[in-house]
Design a protein that fits this description.
The complex is a heterodimer of chains A (561) and B (500). In chain A, 71% of the residues lie in helices and 1% in strands. Chain A is mostly helical and 561 residues long. In chain A, strands 1-2 form a two-stranded parallel ribbon. Chain A has a two-stranded antiparallel ribbon with strand order 3-4. In chain A, β3 and β4 form a beta hairpin. In chain A, α2 runs antiparallel to α17 and α8 runs parallel beside α10. Chain A is globular, with a radius of gyration of 26 Å. Chain B has 500 residues and is mostly helical. Chain B has a domain of 197 residues. Helix content of chain B is 76%, strand content 2%. Chain B is globular and about 70 Å long. The chains are: A mainly alpha (561), B mainly alpha (500). The interface between A and B is large, with 57 and 61 residues.
Chain lengths: 561, 500
């Protein structure tokens, strides 16, 4: 047998994923030149980036499951090392958590791999075709899917993503959890769900359930966050839900939608993180309450952030809408199976989309619009370092905004020319099936209509208000807010009411106590066992000797019975 | 038969080294270091030569004092012996290099090296001997030397640990002796090959089962299988770091696992209930060990509990009894020797630099001790089974073997233990090496040269350890070892053939 086909394969799906892995590597490297400038040990940083690129490509192209596991597992280690570049106490905690979750699910994948081998006697991915009618087969699928879920950040293995987003250096977040890990995780999910296993309706339903739950739960968590990067991190989880949902539909258009959404998500999510990082670099903080008014200072960053936010919220004509639209169609098509659950999935997906928009309204207001902090510092106060920074804020350096603008441009292009460029070039060839659309959605025509609509709106606005409008400082009760630093409205308060709605308040309180964090639960159980066992090891010699005796008696009983 | 003269050298050279050091080492300060490293280097080279010899000539047998089989003592060199010899002497060499700098903290280095080489003689002897009572003698030599080495620091807790270790280990030794006595009275021979023949003729009886149990308890105590493990978490951390590395790295394997394998596979003959007992004990050790390890804050104590857990993997693999399982178990034995020795050397380096073993007091040492930090990271990844380091391969093989043998439950526990192992080593990395550097460590320096070189080379072996499974190397190193176990009680015929 040819060695290349035994270990590597180059089909359309893997080539498509590999192309985007390469693109993101380039963009992040360019961005890192600006962002990581002051850090130490950059030689290691860049070599880890290159290693990440190589192992991702290796994972995507490998055809042998063990080879795949090597690249895949090594990526977890690289993520761990890259998060550590923040060199803060929190980052080392987060890195530990992320790697335990990812490495732990990798161990599960080993079990899955062993089961696959037992079922088929082969580890070559293109030779494997397992129908999910035995318990062992289902177990194997679940073990492998757990790895894909953890990598992509779907529930219940998602909790490392928001933490990583908050604590890791921003280019690392944009590179791994936001783009590469999504590409790889969903790639592998597609690989196992479409090629290696023959999906059963029951498992498809499970996938759709996980997907819908992820969408809604994560976006609800995102709504109440106070940290720019953490909020984006929860959206990174939420968006995975759409992809899982799309793949779970099991029909061509849904799967194509899931894949397309994976691609779109990596584009706009990286863009969001990179823009967020640019703000962080200028402001020195990602706390939403301390940000505000950056729209005027950093117009390029603002524009790309805005485009990406609209894309993630599924506003036409940006790319997020196109893929969500396909996923909706896929969900509606599952109605043909006779089950009425599709209504729930559809509502969850649309509701999630609406909430996404809501949380991005909050974000854009708090970061780019809103009032800047201490715009006019009191004259008799000595400027602190942070305040001194504010006064010389400016647009970020070109190495940092070029990747953002490029990604924002892709958001527009992939949305407007959805059918002609990304779908035709990447998605459909990688699935190799003819896909029919349900409704009519001519993106280009719609775009023209939208642009016309907006133009008309602007004309009406200008005609109607140009003479009457008056600009003034924001004020309450006659006091101009900006002169009263304590009276600032940061934009996060509006959403605090969500926390107080009756069924939600209890859930949020539990969530804040990490009750839904699989890592936290696992550690409680583990340390519980540890306590019991440590209690037994009391250091007294006769106790230990009596265990030996006990062990011997049991052995005698078993073997000489 | 000239080639077989190499076999007694493994014991003789170690004893010679110990003898020279004990006589003149006290006066010449530089001599113990030199003789110690030189002796272990010669042993390492010899053991590598034996790999080649056995690959080309097959099994070798040496008659001590020219007494013919089955009357005299024979020394046997087969695949499994060679495998163990390489493992033991490889670790011993790096440990003795490391000791050159590390043992400066202690007075009377010559006593350390004397005991160290005595322990080496015992371990090599256990591995090469083909005689049951001789095995017991070498076992005692190695054990007694290790009791003294555990107490080497002569502080309060070290003496306490050594006392516990001595008592429990002696209990184990007594059971082994009792087992040998019963076997001798049953078969009227002490030669292992002869014994296997007689046992095969007489068939199974209750007395053999009872001997099996005595051996499981005795060798299980040496190998620290749960529930016979309780001495290990006290003894291993209390010894000086190089000795901890030896104890966890090779002593429990040559005195415990090797002997278990040899006795059960080649002499008594494995059956399904024995193999089930081994698997259950292995799984218990694997899971209980890791649950105990994850809560520890003492660096070396954490590592000691992980030894229990990793020994469980080895025993599980070997207990499966399938070709793949045995290869996986032996491969894991080798890998564990390397990465656990390295981890103990790392913990010693941290203790050398900071004076503490408490993980909560460390932090951010990566910036000050990059080599120690990086090698610890590599060893941690190996023990946690992260690809592409060596531990990944052996764990993968053990898990696949367990699934293949239709033991899904055991495979599941192996995976769970692997996850928890990863978690506890993440804890080590976080608290010791990553995070923010504490002020009181701002003056910390990287360890001296010989300590560094030993750690770096062991780390390199961890990185490239996976190649051992590539067919050519596997064919001359791992495969012959597992073949010895697979051929079971045919061992006797082969030994008799080897004697001619």
């Amino acid at each position: 047998m040819n060695l290349t086909t035994q270990f590597f394969k180059f089909d359309n799906l893997s080539i498509f994923v590999a192309i985007f892995v390469g693109i993101f590597f380039l963009l992040i490297t360019i961005y890192s030149v600006g962002f990581m400038r002051q850090k130490k040990n950059l030689i290691y940083y860049y070599s880890f980036l290159i290693l990440t690129l190589l192992s991702s490509l290796g994972a995507v192209f490998s055809n042998n499951l063990i080879l795949f596991m090597i690249f895949w597992g090594f990526l977890g280690l690289l993520l761990y090392l890259l998060i550590e570049f923040s060199q803060t106490e929190n980052a080392s905690y987060t890195a530990k958590k992320a790697f335990i979750i990812i490495g732990g699910t990798d161990a599960l994948m080993l079990l899955g791999l062993a089961l696959v081998w037992r079922l088929t006697g082969s580890l070559q991915m293109d030779e494997i075709s397992i129908s999910l009618n035995t318990k062992v087969a289902v177990l194997a699928y679940i073990c492998l899917a757990a790895g894909a879920f953890a990598k992509a950040g779907a529930m219940p293995f998602h909790t490392w993503v928001p933490d990583t987003a908050q604590d890791a250096p921003t280019p690392v977040t944009a590179f791994l959890p936001a783009s590469l890990d999504k590409l790889l995780g969903i790639y592998f999910l597609v690989r196992i769900s479409l090629y290696m296993f023959k999906m059963s309706p029951a498992l498809n339903t499970v996938l759709m359930m996980i997907g819908s739950f992820t969408i809604v739960a994560a976006v609800m968590m995102a709504l109440i966050q106070h940290d720019l990067k953490r909020l984006l991190g929860y959206h990174a989880v939420s968006q995975v839900g759409y992809m899982v949902l799309g793949i779970g539909t099991g029909n061509p258009i849904g799967i194509a939608g899931g894949l397309f959404h994976m691609l779109n998500n990596t584009i706009y999510k990286s863009c969001l993180f990179l823009s967020g990082g640019a703000v962080e670099k200028e402001a020195g903080t990602t706390n939403l309450e301390k940000l505000g008014g950056f729209g005027k200072i950093m117009p390029i960053t603002f524009t790309s952030f805005l485009i990406a936010s609209l894309a993630i919220s599924g506003i036409p004509p940006f790319n997020g809408f196109a893929s969500k639209w396909m996923i909706y169609q896929g969900i509606i098509k599952t109605a043909g199976n006779g089950s009425h659950l599709w209504i729930i999935w559809l509502i969850a997906a649309m509701f999630g989309s609406a909430l996404t928009l809501a949380s991005f309204m909050k974000l854009i207001h708090a970061v780019f619009l809103g009032q800047p902090v201490n715009k006019q510092p009191l004259s008799n106060k000595i400027l602190t370092k942070a305040e001194a920074m504010i006064n010389k804020r400016r647009e970020t350096s070109p190495t940092m905004w070029i990747p953002q603008v490029f990604l924002a441009g892709l958001c527009v292009i992939f949305g407007v020319f959805a059918y002609r460029i990304p779908l035709k070039m990447f998605i459909f060839p990688s699935l190799g099936e003819k896909i029919e659309f349900l409704g009519i959605w001519n993106a280009s025509l719609a775009t023209i209509l939208i642009i016309v609509g907006i133009a008309v709106g602007i004309i009406i606005y200008l005609l109607g208000t140009i003479t009457k409008a008056r600009e003034t400082e924001a004020f309450i009760g006659g006091e101009i807010l900006e002169k009263q630093p304590n009276m600032r409205i940061s934009g996060t308060e509006f959403y605090n009411t969500i926390k107080e709605i009756t069924p939600l308040d209890a859930i949020y309180r539990l969530a804040e106590r990490k009750v839904f964090d699989i890592y936290y639960l696992g550690s409680i159980i583990t340390f519980g066992f540890n306590k019991i066992l440590s209690y037994l090891h009391n250091g007294i010699l006769p106790t230990y000797l009596s265990w030996c005796l006990l062990g011997m008696i049991i052995l005698f009983y078993i073997l000489l019975r | 038969m000239a080639m077989s003269n190499i076999i007694p050298l493994f014991v003789a050279i170690s004893l010679l080294g110990a003898f020279i050091i004990s006589i003149i080492g006290k006066r010449l300060k530089w001599l113990p270091d030199l003789i110690g490293s030189l002796t272990t280097l010669i042993l390492l080279v010899l053991s590598l030569i034996t790999v080649r010899i056995v690959a080309t000539q097959g099994i070798l047998v040496y008659n001590v004092g020219s007494w013919k089989l089955p009357i005299g003592i024979v020394l046997v060199l087969d695949g499994l012996t060679v495998f163990m010899l390489v493992t033991v002497n490889l670790i011993a060499f790096f440990v003795s290099i490391y000791s050159i700098n590390y043992m400066e903290r202690f007075t009377s280095k010559w006593k350390f090296y004397t005991l160290f080489l005595l322990m080496m003689a015992g371990m090599n002897g256990v591995v090469v001997t083909g005689d049951m009572f001789n095995l017991f003698v070498f076992l005692e030599i190695a054990s007694v030397a290790s009791y003294a080495l555990v107490a080497f620091g002569t502080e309060r807790h070290e003496l306490e640990a050594a006392f516990k270790y001595t008592v429990m280990s002696t209990v184990g030794t007594l059971f082994i002796l009792l087992g040998i006595v019963f076997l001798y009275s049953y078969t009227s021979t002490l030669n292992m090959a002869d014994m296997a023949n007689v046992l095969a003729q007489k068939g199974m009886s209750n007395i053999v089962v009872m001997v099996s149990i005595l051996f499981i308890v005795g060798f299980g105590l040496k190998a620290a299988l749960v529930p016979f493990h309780a001495w290990l978490p006290d003894a291993h951390p209390s010894a000086p770091a190089p000795i901890s590395a030896m104890l966890s790295g090779v002593l429990i394997k040559s005195l415990g696992i090797y002997t278990l394998c040899r006795v059960f596979y080649n002499v008594i003959g494995i059956n399904s209930s024995l193999s089930l007992v081994l698997m259950v004990l292995g799984t218990l050790s694997m899971v209980i060990g890791v649950f105990l390890a994850i809560g520890q804050w003492d660096f070396k104590r954490l590592l000691a509990y992980h030894s229990i857990s990793q020994i469980g993997y080895v025993i599980l693999g070997i207990g499966l009894g399938t070709p793949l399982g045995i290869i996986g178990g032996l491969f894991h034995l080798f890998n564990h020797s390397v990465f656990k020795a390295l981890l103990f050397l790392n913990s010693g380096a941290v203790e050398y630099a900071t004076g503490t073993r408490d993980l909560q007091k460390m932090g951010g040492l990566m910036t000050k001790m990059p080599i120690t930090g990086t090698t610890t990271l590599i060893a941690s990844m190996s023990i946690a089974g992260i690809p592409p380091f060596n531990g990944f391969w052996s764990k993968l093989i053990i898990i696949i073997a367990a699934v293949q043998a239709n033991r899904l439950g055991y495979a599941f526990w192996a995976v769970l233990a692997s996850i928890l192992t990863l978690a506890s080593f993440m804890k080590v990395m976080k608290y010791a090496f990553f995070g923010e550097l504490r002020n009181k460590w701002s003056e910390v320096m990287e360890v001296p040269f010989f300590m560094k070189i030993a750690m770096v080379i062991l780390a390199l072996i961890c990185v490239v350890g996976g190649v051992l499974f590539i067919s050519n190397i596997n064919e001359i190193f791992l495969k012959p070892a597992s073949d010895v176990l697979l051929e079971g009680t045919k061992y006797a015929d082969i030994v008799f053939k080897g004697i001619q």
